[in-house]
Amino acid sequence: MKSLSLDCAEMPPPVSSTMRSPFKSKPIRQAQGFATSGETSDWERSISPVGPSPRRLPPQPRPIHSQPINITTHIVTHEFSGNDFTLYLGDRMNNIVDNGDPDWLHGDRTKTLLTFPNTCVSPIIPGEQPMRLSQNVNLIESRLRLYRDQVVFAQPNSMRDDRIKVRNERGTIVECPVMYLTLL
């Protein structure tokens, strides 16, 4: 490798900033328009856009049928006793507020804001009927066991042959015999 000495009489030939591609006859353009200080360069300011500038349209209101279902009512599925309140199985909780904590929720019951674990309540989807199991049920065909006093949610218009589709608090839907269910 050659080194450059300051006391040389001859200067090496200058290196060209444009490179030529062996496949094209035009010089390859260097990246232009990027100022090193993070500001826009004069070159960028002088270039006009090729097409019209994109404009955003105002948001379209979504049709009523595609809006998400607003769930504000929950049912207590596991009893919980706080400092000055107790949640009993089957109690309805209104206006549940998620404060960002994955383990705790805030809810309104009798116009008092209560804090409780999120595992002791389950949302009611409109049309569902909360029910309680009167005894343990082993549903072999769906590989699920439902327990006595467990709260499940009967699905609307799903009764067939003395069986009804129910949803547990984890969202699993199975067919359960009606004889083991009581209304809450």
* Low-pLDDT stretches: 64-68
Shape: elongated
Radius of gyration: 35 Å
Q: Strand content of the residues, in percent?
A: 25-35%
CA-to-CA gap between the ends?
Answer: 89 Å
CATH C-level name of the domain at 129-183: Mainly Beta
Largest sheet composition = 5 strands, antiparallel
Protein name: SH3 domain-containing protein
Organism: Panagrolaimus sp. ES5
SSE map:
Layout: E1 19-20, E2 27-28, H1 42-46, E3 73-76, E4 80-81, E5 86-87, E6 92-97, E7 104-109, E8 112-117, E9 121-123, E10 129-133, E11 137-139, E12 144-146, E13 151-154, E14 163-167, E15 173-177, E16 181-183
Antiparallel strand pairs: 1-2, 3-6, 3-9, 4-5, 6-7, 7-8, 10-13, 10-16, 11-12, 13-14, 14-15
Protein name: SH3 domain-containing protein
Organism: Panagrolaimus sp. ES5
Q: Can you describe this structure?
A:
This is SH3 domain-containing protein. This protein is mostly beta strands. Among the domains are: 70-123, SH3 type barrels (Roll); 129-183, SH3 type barrels (Roll). Helices cover 3% and strands 33% of the residues. It has one helix at residues 42-46, and strands spanning 19-20, 27-28, 73-76, 80-81, 86-87, 92-97, 104-109, 112-117, 121-123, 129-133, 137-139, 144-146, 151-154, 163-167, 173-177, 181-183. The strands form 5 sheets. The chain has a 5-stranded antiparallel β-sheet with strand order 8-7-6-3-9, with no helix packed on it. A 5-stranded antiparallel β-sheet has the order 15-14-13-10-16, with no helix packed on it. A two-stranded antiparallel sheet has the order 1-2. It is elongated and about 105 Å long. The termini are far apart. Mean pLDDT is 77; it is low at 64-68.
